[in-house]
Amino acid sequence: MANGNLKLAVQKKGRLSEKTMEMLKACGLEVDNYGERLLVPSRNYDIDILFLRDDDIPEYVKDGVADIGIVGENVMVEKQAAVSIVKRLGFSKCRLLIAVPENKELSNLNEINAKTIATSYPNILKSFLKENSLNAKIIEISGSVEIAPSLGVADMICDIVSTGNTLKMNKLKKSFPVFESEAVLIQSSAVEMDAHKKELLDNLLIRIDSVLTAKKSKYLMMNVPKNQLEKVIEILPSIKSPTVLPLADENLVAVHAVIPSETFWQINNKLKYAGASGILLLQIDNMIV
Ligand code: ATP
Ligand code: MG
Q1: Where in the chain is the domain with CATH 3.30.70.120?
Q2: Model confidence, pTM
Q3: How far apart are CA 223 and CA 164, in angstroms?
Q4: pLDDT in tens, 199-230
């Protein structure tokens, strides 16, 4: 393993895997046949990908077995390993929250006092209780936390919730939020990387930034009557001045602009009213600003 390559630990199989590999691919890293082997070197970058259970990633990174890792912030904080966040990655967003049986009301956080809460995240829950000066008994369960209240093991649970379907199936409902999480890139606070690895990491971070920036933007193209050009340009929230190109039809011009993704649906109708036609919105893979 001591080939000087940067070692990146990622989740082998689970909710982080697909998005993680998608991001690495968008960064231009070619990784063959992942999912079969524990360690896969990239074909075109001095990086080895280690495929692990997400629970093990913080510790492996702390010890320097992997130089960096991609893991849920929830797992990073829960494991309390000496690692730090290098970059927030913006995917696999989820929240840890308190859920109570459907027939119970929890209108004030203080009502948690003296109750029993089942969770797979005892450390995060402990900090939350401390921050809010609350006192509750924590029961640590490693999986299927949702069934604890119906088994009479706990009054409520603290778990990751996204759609709430699992809660509903177990006759539970969402209550107070405890922790917001997203995927993060981590490095060890205990082991320092050598200069070569630092350089590889810096270069990777430039690529990740470009991918994250590109995700926030879209490439907009449309045809606009010449006499409406000024109006259309006024509507556009472009990052830079838009490109205006001549068309075979002399009355029309093509307008191209990079816009923040979330603004499209706000300006779409305005553009149409202003006379824009053939509106196309394209994804951007990489963007260096
Ligand atoms: P492993 O086998 O690697 O231990 P796991 O079962 O512990 O996997 P997953 O369920 O695959 O973990 O979740 C991995 C991470 O994905 C979680 O720690 C969390 O950060 C994030 N996550 C979990 N549930 C969701 C969700 N519903 N939506 C988005 N992200 C989620
Ligand atoms: Mg896990």
Answers
A1: 217-283
A2: 0.89
A3: 44
A4: 999 999 999 999 999 999 999 999 999 999 99
